């Protein structure tokens, strides 16, 4: 009888222990889902369009509160925080909102944009862009002299942009829209070819490179056995340790 009595408290304490463990993990899961949904989001750079600011294989935390409405202390929401010239923004690709892109905000609503021989001219003045790189020494229409005649790389949305928003040889950014380009200007698929980014598509801005891994795009975008074998074999020698935990600055 004494053995049975001793077993009952042991079983009860075991059940209580498991209940605590489950409750703790549930709390961790809820906090993780809240943070990843509302505050930060992971993102990996898959293409070289933002070199040398961001490299293929940089794994980022995206600050989703950077451009969110804020409170005024009286329970009222203030308007969206403004995107500034030169901000690096993460957004839903306008032609397919299931895809996420990252570019630099070049034109804000009301700006007049043109490019002459690779030089950005905004509102009539040449813009100094220390972050941009050019990896070709030749000129092509639209990419290096913008706006210009339709080009084979233009999507329908880009054609509509040029048809509707060009005035006196300059592109005029309409209200609620943004003109974006990659820092690697010669290898960036951006607003020059597919049009504006609507304000509601903007997710946030990159905050921190928490890990950088030197791997080709196709490896970064799949979860094949080859990818995991590559990680297992080359984690230490392909990790760019100097880029880890680097704050992304505009």
Portion in strands: 15-25%
The number of helical runs is 5
Low-confidence segments, given as residue ranges, are 24-38
Shape: globular
How many strands, which pairing sense, and closed or not: the largest β-sheet? 8 strands, antiparallel
How many strands in all? Answer: 13
Round the mean pLDDT to the nearest integer and report it. 85
The structural class is alpha+beta
Gap between N and C termini, in Å? Answer: 73 Å
Overview of this structure, please?
By secondary structure, the protein is an alpha+beta fold. It contains 5 helices and 13 strands. Strands 1, 2, 3, 4, 10, 11, 12 and 13 form an 8-stranded antiparallel beta sheet that branches. A 5-stranded antiparallel beta sheet has the order 7-6-5-9-8.
List the helices and strands and how they pair.
Layout lengths: L1 H38 E5 L13 E6 L24 E5 L7 E8 L4 E5 L2 E4 L2 E2 L29 H10 E2 L2 E3 L4 E5 L9 H4 L2 E2 L3 E11 L4 H4 L4 H14 L7 E2 L3
Antiparallel strand pairs: 1-2, 2-12, 3-4, 3-12, 4-10, 5-6, 5-9, 6-7, 8-9, 10-11, 12-13
């Amino acid at each position: 009888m004494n053995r049975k009595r001793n077993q009952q408290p042991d079983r009860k304490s075991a059940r209580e222990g498991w209940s605590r463990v489950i409750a703790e993990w549930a709390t961790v899961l809820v906090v993780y889902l809240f943070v990843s949904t509302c505050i930060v989001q992971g993102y990996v750079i898959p293409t070289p369009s933002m070199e040398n600011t961001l490299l293929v294989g940089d794994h980022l935390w995206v600050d989703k509160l950077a451009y969110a409405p804020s409170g005024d202390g009286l329970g009222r929401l203030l308007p969206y925080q403004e995107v500034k010239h030169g901000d690096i923004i993460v957004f839903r690709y306008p032609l397919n909102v299931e895809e996420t892109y990252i570019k630099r905000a070049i034109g804000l609503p009301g700006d007049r944009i043109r490019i002459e021989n690779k030089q950005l001219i905004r509102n009539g003045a040449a813009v100094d862009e220390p972050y941009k790189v050019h990896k070709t020494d030749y000129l092509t229409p639209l990419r290096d002299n913008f706006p210009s005649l339709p080009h084979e790389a233009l999507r329908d949305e880009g054609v509509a942009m040029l048809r509707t928003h060009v005035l006196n040889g300059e592109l005029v950014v309409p209200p609620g829209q943004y003109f974006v380009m990659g820092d690697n200007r010669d290898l960036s698929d951006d607003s020059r070819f597919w049009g504006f980014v609507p304000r509601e598509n903007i997710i946030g801005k990159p905050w921190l490179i928490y890990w950088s891994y030197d791997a080709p795009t196709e490896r970064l975008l799949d979860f094949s056995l080859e990818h995991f074998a590559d990680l297992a074999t080359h984690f230490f020698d392909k990790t760019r340790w100097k880029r880890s935990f680097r704050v992304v600055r505009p």
